[in-house]
Amino acid sequence: MGISILGAGCCLPQQEVDNHAFESFIETSDEWITTRTGIHCRRISDGILTYQMGAEAARQALKDADTAPEEIDMVLATTVTADTTTPSLACLAAAEVGIKTAPCMDLNAACTGFVYALDVAEKYLSTGSAKKILILSAEMMSRIVNFKDRSSCVLFGDGAAAVVVGPSDKMYHSWLACNLDGRYKIFSKATNSENPFRKKDFDWPEEVAEMQPGLMEMAGNEVYRFATQAMPEAVQRCCEKAGFTPEQLDRIIPHQANLRIIRTALKHLGLPEEKVHINIQHYGNISSACIPLSLCEMKRAGELHPGDKICLVGFGSGLTYGAAVLEW
User: Fold this and answer.
1) Which of these is catalytic: 11, 41, 111, 238?
2) Model confidence, pTM
3) Of 68, 84, 143, 154, which one's alpha carbon is 20 to 30 angstroms from that of 260?
């Protein structure tokens, strides 16, 4: 038993911010950003909420899959930047598209979120517990980015993408992991409780004690080293489970964090760049929405063909990482 992607959709904020826009408030340049990251511009929310982007992506995915809202048996949402602590992004976005009673839940595996959610969906589909599942990944990274940190604020963008998945006899394998020694390397504290009973500061570990609540901090060099090893490992391990080599993959759809990370991972795998979908230059890093956005783009462009072996691979805060190999 495998899965089939029945439809895909995406939603990006209208506001496009190029690298030059950062020059007015931090010490940086288009050349500095481009040469180190591959990013030229990104979309930034100018009022649209995370769940609204997710709902629009879901509408498009449902239409593309020729699926009515009442046919959805489950909604899985991935995000690190929900608009609310409760209810979930999944509940808010599902209601917007007319889903009435399907179970809804959020999954937080940071930038690996879509790969993790796809694997959760496969488990429900393979047991017959669901026939159609909506996965939506929506992120407003501008909500938690520290715009005073020139090394990280230029990396991220906002947006959403969604897919409808169903059961299939096509091939599917996954390999998921965490490197918990790196759990503090990408970190964002919740805002502090101001209850009248708290008399002391919270006892945060020394590594994150001085971080400002509500903003994300990242140990860039260490994350880079982790990513360049984790991505090829995940691809290799997943292909081993599937019974073939990475060279036999037709397309690789990676998390779009940094162009140099992608190219270094490909070098480790011995694979040509032609096999990889890259759109980081247009959107930057949209966390868990990167991979489904690429899927949506490729599907609309007719770049995916029946029988293609496709590998989705990501890494993110936690440090989570993993890959899924499926047949289109």
Assistant:
1) 111
2) 0.96
3) 143
Q: Does residue 305 carry a catalytic annotation?
A: no
Give the pair of three-digit tokens for residue 306: 């029946």
Looking at residue 192, what is its pLDDT?
Answer: 79
Vertex 30: Cα angle to 24 and 33 (nearest 5): 105
CA distances from 303 to 2, 7, 15, 50, 227 (A): 21, 14, 27, 28, 26
Catalytic hit among 255, 258, 290, 296: 255
Q: What per-residue confidence (pLDDT) applies to 215?
A: 96
In this prediction, residue 47 carries a pLDDT of: 95
Catalytic residue among 285, 290, 296, 311: 285
**In the block, which residue shows the tokens 């009515």?**
68
Determine phi and psi for 126, rounding to 5 degrees.
-70, -25
Active site residue 255: yes
CA 244 to chain centre: 26
Report, as ranges of residue numbers, the positions in the chain whose pLDDT lies below 50.
none
Peptide bond into 87 cis (omega under 30): yes
pLDDT given for residue 194 in this prediction: 82
* Half-sphere exposure of residue 188: CA atoms within 13 angstroms, side-chain side: 15
